[in-house]
Amino acid sequence: MTIEAQFQEGEYQIVILSAKDSGGLDAWLRLAKYKIPDGAAAALAPYVREQMKFFVAKVDIKKVKRDAHGLVVLSPLRFSFDSAELRLPVRLGLLNAEGQQDLLIYILSPDARYETANYQNAFIPTNVEVSDSVKQNFGAFYAELFDETLRKANNRAVVTEYAWSTPILQRPPPSMTWQSYHCDPCPAPETPPPSLSDWVTLGDETILGALATTKPGAQQKSFQLPEGVPESWVLTRLHTRYDKATLNEDLVFRAAKPMIGGTANADGTNADQGATASNDGKSRFQGRYIIRHYWEGPVACANPQYGIWSGPPLGQGGGTGGTKTAGDLANAKRGAMKLATVVKSPVPSLGLPGTPRPPLRKGEAPKPPR
């Protein structure tokens, strides 16, 4: 076992190791007071055979920061390396796991969305109409929807939740702001679309570092990208939950064809039924869930037009709606919501028939609920 490098970064004491024998690496980690379960040498052996380096970080408790509730908040770790394939060595994370692991993966690429090459791929159902009760418990609804998507794949799938092509230098029209450009629908104010600084933070600083000092605004319209930096990038979000029974090899990723899903027409109707091939070579896929309030009075129009949707009328809650986002999904209460009772549109991939409301005839009022 060889120590390739050793240094302090923030609250972390970092050691980079290489090894010729997994038993020696296992012994070193134990001597360094790392909590390593029995059998760890067998899990480390495949990586040792492939001559991988090991990035080991120990937290210096005296240098950590705490939030308002006194909980420790660790700084993110960022490092770069060259590899012939895009692989995430997640099996090591199962060594000390007592239950399921919730994993979110963001992949930023200049030319393609990404999916797994060695596990089943699935798309989260999107453009789904749901009942009004979902509004107050969106996290629980989405967690159940996600879990059911995994169950249909025997809990061995990686789910695409988002894949969107967007320019790295956003040049909004004069009537739009920097933050609201390139989103459909635009997320809630607390989760704006990626800004220029986000792209620099997420990307390889050797490629994007030249953009770090560029500020959005009027001067942005004339800014020229450095040579070799693509104008458009694709951000993919993948999500899975796994344990020792459902994950037996690392995740390997590959470029995939562009897809669309979760988009809307100008009249509020769905522009797609979700997860279909893109015709223009750009990915535009997201999870989108709609609450629609149908007309509750008698129909007095001679020729009523159905299926045209907009926001609530002024004076009746106008401006209080807008897009909501689901957060902290790993800790959302599971099993608290039954999809069959809250999903209104059919979702064939999950075997949900839906309960669509039929159009009313002239003079007819909706029937009271049973």
Q: Please compute the radius of gyration using only Cα atoms.
A: 25 Å
Structural class: alpha+beta
What is the string of helix and strand elements?
Answer: EEHHEEEEEEEEHEHHEEEEEEH
Distance N terminus to C terminus?
A: 71 Å
Largest sheet descriptor: 7 strands, mixed
Beta strand count: 17
Number of helices: 6
- Return the average pLDDT rounded to an integer: 81
Strand content: 15-25%
Q: What level of helicity do the residues show?
A: 10-25%
CA-based shape: elongated
Low-pLDDT windows of residues = 172-181, 215-222, 315-319
Description:
This protein is of the alpha+beta class. It has a domain of 65 residues. It contains six helices and 17 strands. Strands 7, 9, 11, 12, 14, 15 and 16 form a seven-stranded mixed beta sheet that branches. Strands 1-2-3 form a three-stranded antiparallel beta sheet, with no helix packed on it. A three-stranded antiparallel beta sheet has the order 6-13-8, with no helix packed on it. Helix 1 crosses helix 2. The radius of gyration is 25 Å and the shape is elongated.
